[in-house]
Specification:
single chain; mainly alpha; Arc Repressor Mutant, subunit A; 2 domains; two-stranded antiparallel ribbon; 5 helices; elongated
Length: 110
């Protein structure tokens, strides 16, 4: 899990300051600021309030933002496609986008 993912997970269901996050992660506050900035750019974190000089952050939960299943699926397909080609199995794709992606995967296999 990347540092950015760790911070995102910590913020899920919590409202924390940079200082709070730094204490929980053992990153320094400047590192946390960088990760928070990157998460905000991806619309994964928002500022929810301000207490004195501290800004309170929380996660904007989005399904599968850090889900690795697509990478795993691609790796499985890359193992299967050569066998499909070897045995002459044709895949029925229904859209031009699917055709294009399948050709990309086939090219990766060769």
């Amino acid at each position: 899990m990347s540092n950015k993912e760790k911070i995102y997970d910590i913020l899920k269901g919590n409202r924390l300051t940079i200082k709070d996050i730094a204490e929980r992660t053992k990153f320094n506050e400047n590192e946390v600021r960088v990760y928070i900035h990157r998460l905000k750019e991806k619309s994964l974190v928002k500022e929810v309030s301000k207490e004195g000089r501290w800004v309170i952050y929380s996660a904007i939960e989005q399904e599968k933002e850090f889900d690795n299943s697509k990478i795993i699926d691609t790796n499985i397909l890359l193992k299967m496609i050569p066998k499909f080609i070897e045995y002459g199995i044709k895949l029925d794709t229904t859209t031009e986008k699917e055709d294009k992606r399948l050709m990309e995967l086939i090219n990766q296999c060769q």
